[in-house]
Amino acid sequence: MADAINFIGASPIMFDDIKEAADLVNISNALVINMGSSNDADVEKSIAAGKYANQKGIPVVIDPVAIGASQLRQDNFAKVAKEVKFDGVRGNAGELAFLADIEWNAQGIDAGEGDGDLHEIAKAVAKKFNCVSLLSGVVDVISDGQKVVEVQNGHHYFAVNVGCGDMLDGILGACLAVDNSLDSAVLAASILSISGEIAGETTENIPYTFLSTVFDTLYQLSDSQISDLQKLG
């Protein structure tokens, strides 16, 4: 995640001690909360940082990692959601379907399978938390609760490289820091998806090399490339 943020020209910083929360949020323009860890200290840290971010008026992005996998993850997310106002929720179909109370067969961090309408899932999550939702997958689906936009770029090797969703979390935070809007969330999805599409052209059957090529492409990607290659629906 830190590399992805850095390669697009933003500046990442992470902290592990709750005593730093106020100081680091104070020098930041967005906060990303990743719920991949489920211990009490991380939950307390997320709540503290989220409250400081809300007070400062900077965007808060949350990733409900594998929320359907355990009761502990569900309880911890609920604790954070009760105390912190989100500006963006980013997850795969299984994770967001769980938040939208729509039946879905998900396993851990995998998106899984289901018959639900991805547009309706994204809209429901956005309405529930009064924010922008970004449902990432083969096609990314972004909603503000009313409008829905698809980003139809991308590459299937994102699914086999664990951590690409976290990269998108960071890019989403950086984009919302500049402009807290649906368009910025669409831009965030486009930046990573287009980079994957470009990287995939030269990395057939070498998925790990694909990931390093994505980073090179993120560093080189221009506004004109995004404009020319972006496929929206």
Mean pLDDT across all amino acids? 93
Biggest sheet strand line-up = 1-2-3-6-7-8
Distance between the first and last residues' Cα: 27 Å
**Class computed from helices, strands and strand pairing:** alpha/beta
**Strand and helix order:** HHEHEHEHEEHEEEHHHH
Query: What oligomeric assembly is this protein in?
Result: single chain
Total of DSSP H or I helical runs spanning 4+ residues: 10
Q: Outline, from the CA principal axes?
A: globular
- Using only C-alpha atoms, the radius of gyration works out to 17 Å
Strand content: 5-15%
What is the strand tally?
8
Walkthrough of the structure:
With 233 residues, the protein is an alpha/beta fold. Strand 6 and strand 7 form a beta hairpin. The protein has a 6-stranded mixed β-sheet, sandwiched between helices. The protein has a two-stranded antiparallel sheet with strand order 4-5. It is globular. The two termini are 27 Å apart. It contains 10 helices and 8 strands.
